[in-house]
Amino acid sequence: MRGSRRRAPVSPPVSLRVERLVLEGLDLTHAQAVVVQRSFERELTRLVTLSGHGANWRGATVPAMPAAPVHTDGTPRPAQLGRDVARSVYSTLRKSP
Questions:
Q1: Is residue 50 part of a domain?
Q2: Separation of alpha carbons 44 and 16, rounded Å
Q3: CA distance 30 to 41
Q4: Is 16 in contact with 45 (CB distance < 8 Å)?
Q5: What is the pLDDT of residue 42?
Q6: Mean pLDDT, range 20-46, rounded to an integer
Q7: What is the pLDDT of residues 55-95, one digit of tens each?
Q8: How far apart are CA 35 and CA 41, in angstroms?
Q9: Which segment, 1-10, 17-26, 61-70, 83-92, is predicted with the most confidence on average?
Q10: Which domain holds residue 43?
Q11: Is residue 9 in a domain?
Q12: Among the listed residues 41, 48, 55, 36, the one whose alpha carbon sits nearest the alpha carbon of residue 91
């Protein structure tokens, strides 16, 4: 039948708030820091949305969370750095109770 395709279930919107993200040992310009932040937020939201864990963490607060180190080769790649940091934070969140 035409037009009878099943639609994928719609995931509820995910809203994350990271009050403070500390990245030590990086010499970033303000513009680069903004790119890191936006890339981080997009990737972390994407990971939580795809995993379906968002509902499990609803209302959760994590006062401080050391994530696994993210290594760079010293070349500033702010968008990639933001994604890598998000993956590290997400991995740590998944392991927490």
A1: yes
A2: 8
A3: 17
A4: yes
A5: 92
A6: 90
A7: 666 666 777 777 788 887 777 699 999 999 999 988 888 87
A8: 10
A9: 83-92
A10: 32-57+64-95
A11: no
A12: 48
